[in-house]
Model the fold of this input.
Amino acid sequence: MDVVNLGDPTPFKTLDGSEIVELLAHRNSCIRNQSLAEARVPVGGATQAHYHRLAEEIYFITEGRGRIRLGTEERDVAEGDAIAIPPGTIHKLWNTGQGILRLLCCCAPAYQHADTVLTETPGSNRL
Done:
């Protein structure tokens, strides 16, 4: 039985600059075709715009407020919002709130650095 507590795994940075705690994936469990992680975006921070060649993602905001761009569309997001991100869709997430923006990220297939393509330079934090 694989049960992982959010406080157990060591956080790491993804290629887009998010700090994540990978909860379940092929690297630490019997799960083979997807991954679940909690991502954290600091106040005033943002991910780098990027896309995934193969993985589709679901973001589920658990705390805070932000703004998401999917392709050319943008909208505000907040706690309780679920966001569908198809493979190949350029996306970027900003923290527009007063506290840490926390979200669950589900990827199928599982998150891999090699599947991530950055589409902007580091430090581009423009809304």
Notes: The longest strand covers residues 56-63.
